[in-house]
Design brief:
7-stranded antiparallel β-sheet, 21% strand, alpha+beta
Length: 199
Amino acid sequence: MQNQRFTQFFAAFALAIAFNSCWFGYSDESVLRKEFNIPHNAEVLSYEAYPKESAVMREGLKIEIIFQLSDDDFQNYTAQTATVPDWTPLPIPEDFLRRMASIETRKRWVVERYEKLGEPLPPEGSIYNPTEQQRMKKFVASLPPQPINGVFQIRTAGTDIMNEPKTMYRQPNRDLNDFMLAMVDTDQKQIIIKVSTSY
C-alpha cells in the first residue's frame, strides 16, 4: 500500500512539473530563443534533445537546435553581433574544444577510479582509457558541423544550465561541465545551438 501511494505521488509530481513547464512556456526552444535573442519569427529547422523535454530528470542533457532567419532578421542580428565582443570568428580553436570536452578532467577521473579500485590502469587507447586524440575526435563528432563562415560564442552555468544564469566563456582556462555553444552561419543565415552537460 505504501509503495502504491509513493508511486501515485511520484506520478502526480512528474505530471505537475511537466504541466508547469508547458504552462509557463519553458520549452527548450523558448529558453534558447530568449538566451540568444533569436527573432520571434525565426523558423526552427531542426531540434533534437536527450533526454526529452517531458523527462523529469534530464541528466547528461544534450540539445541541438537550428534556427533559420529571414534576410532582414539576419541582417539585424549580425549587425548586433558585430558590436558585441563576445562573438569570435569560426572555426573554434582547439584549446576551446579541449576545455569543452573536459579532456583533463575525464583523464583524471579514469586515474582516480582505478586507484580507488586498487586495479592497474587499462592500456591507453583502450575503451576504458581513451587517448586524448580519441576523446577529442569523439567530442568533435558530437558537435554540429562548424559553418565555413561565421562566428561563435560559448556560455556556461556550472549547474542547471537551462535555468541558471549563464556567463560568457572567453578564455579556455578551465574544463567545463556544461556549455551552450552558439554558431552563426553567415552563408546559410542560420543560428546553430548546442547544449551539453556532464551532470
